[in-house]
Write a structure and sequence with these properties.
The protein is of the alpha/beta class and 368 residues long. Helix content is 23%, strand content 17%. The N and C termini lie far apart (46 Å).
Length: 368
């Protein structure tokens, strides 16, 4: 667990205030190592309903319960299999959510009416301090915070406090605290693994890919991790239309990319280019070039027009996402995705002219 400089971290008083707000049945937003979360008391159905209302989230779509490192997992889960304990020892605190059988006394509001529950222990120091303060305010000392990503349902998840404030201006104006915690280290949602059906011969099942890979999980458990089956429980962030940016996205050819970075046909406003392979020798003066490790020959230029980020197939998408420059009026980092096969020269150009809230017709264009 890394500490944050004072300027990037919420104060103890702010954390205590946010914990009290949740104890009072209200919402609070806070940082985690994955993305920022919109939190409420997991045992208060009315408070959890406020999450769904603020996000515009379907009530049958589960949320993840976050607990402090000292929390008692058996309070939330009816059973804690040995597989879960092995993964907890290996990856908690961290970006891994475990789906377990829900304890009978835990309300099904957090699980979308299912008999399972998703539980995670985040590693971010502000999140851990908040969860500890919240649990301390509970009579039995067992506090869990239901917290999906702090964005409107289906939109891009926030990785900075200012993203949350721009997404929920009315809630912030009404007093919802947004705890500062700097940029999220991981920048993508947690891995979700289903262990709730092991007694029926199903699992472990990877419901949502994330920072912790199936290969890492298999290395700990010594068994294969399976893909979701028809009977798999619903899990947070697994709908077909999810994490969808409203920024126009263009899948471009080599020729189109060369034209853009040389200033030909460059759209008005800011543009982000995420490219896989070697950086071209010729770049327009308006282009600011950055590289994600382990790319060499990186260069930086002042620019008002375009930012080109070159990376390699070996560079994780989450790393690229964190290193892309901030864009005025939009979060365009979702342009950095895993390189689509088969060409090493496939490019993704993200045009960031419009506000995130402006609908754009036909946002995905495939060029020859």
């Amino acid at each position: 667990m890394t500490s944050l400089p004072p300027s990037a971290s919420a104060s103890a008083a702010e954390i205590a205030q946010a914990a009290q707000r949740m104890l009072d049945g209200e919402l609070a937003a806070f940082p985690t190592e994955t993305v920022y979360g919109l939190g409420a008391d997991a045992e208060n159905p009315q408070a959890v309903a406020k999450i769904y209302a603020a996000k515009g989230r379907p009530s049958n779509h589960p949320v993840i319960v976050h607990i402090a490192p000292q929390g008692d997992l058996s309070y939330w889960a009816a059973e804690v299999p040995q597989e879960a304990r092995l993964l907890i020892d290996a990856f908690w605190p961290g970006p891994l959510t475990l789906i377990l059988k829900r304890a009978p006394h835990i309300v099904d509001t957090v699980s979308g009416g299912q008999d399972s529950i998703g539980i995670r222990c985040p590693s971010h120091p502000v999140a851990q301090a908040l969860l500890a303060a919240f649990a301390a305010g509970k009579p039995n000392g067992q506090g869990g915070v239901a917290a999906p990503s702090a964005n409107k349902f289906g939109q891009v998840s926030p990785t900075r406090a200012e993203h949350v404030r721009s997404e929920f201006p009315e809630e912030v104006a009404a007093g919802m605290p947004v705890l500062e915690g700097g940029a999220s280290d991981v920048g993508i949602e947690s891995t979700i693994l289903d262990l709730s059906r092991l007694d029926r011969g199903a699992g472990p099942v990877l419901l949502r890919p994330g920072h912790i890979s199936a290969a890492q999980i298999e290395a700990v458990l010594g068994v294969q991790v399976f893909a979701p089956d028809a009977a798999a429980p619903r899990a947070s962030g697994t709908l077909k239309a999810h994490y969808a940016p409203r920024t126009a996205l263009e899948l471009a050819s080599d020729a189109r990319l060369r034209d853009v970075v040389q200033g030909q046909g460059l759209p008005e406003g800011k543009v982000v280019v995420v490219a896989y392979g070697d950086r071209p020798d010729a770049l327009d003066g308006r282009v600011q070039c950055r590289a994600c490790p382990p790319i060499r020959r990186a260069m930086r230029r002042r620019s008002t027009g375009c930012c080109a980020t070159w990376t390699s197939r070996a560079t994780p998408a989450s790393l690229c996402r964190r290193r892309l420059p901030p864009m005025t009026g939009t979060r365009s980092t979702t342009a950095s995705a895993a390189p689509p096969p088969p060409s090493r020269w496939t490019r993704r150009i993200c045009e960031a002219r419009a506000s995130r809230r402006q609908e754009l017709p036909d946002p995905l264009h495939r060029l020859p």
